[in-house]
Amino acid sequence: MSSDVSDLEQDQLVADVFARACSSRTILEHITGRWGTLALVALAEGPVRFNALRRKVDGVSEKMLAQTLQALERDGFVHREAQPTIPPRVEYSLTPSGREAAGKLRELIDFVESKVPEVAAARERYDEAKARQ
Asked: Which of helix, strand or coil describes residue 25?
């Protein structure tokens, strides 16, 4: 008998991100990690070649971006299309699930960016209070 989970059993599994062994934690990590979030939102603008994406996601190394895209592709959020040209032309785009995730992440990014002045003020108050202790 195969140790693989049958389709029926798979449908009956309940995801619980708070459970240590739940695979949803890994998926969440891939999506919400610094590079995963930025790559997904950057790809929401349309298909992009690797080097253009690397320029857009300022600060990511080639190795880290490649690993991030591979994880997101494996999870079904990113589609990689290699065209048989010389040199090979590879484009990355979002799948329907990737577009959905990118939309939610874009909302979070917009929220974070709108709170930068408020957070800066809170940090200043916090640092001043700590300095007085």
From this structure: helix
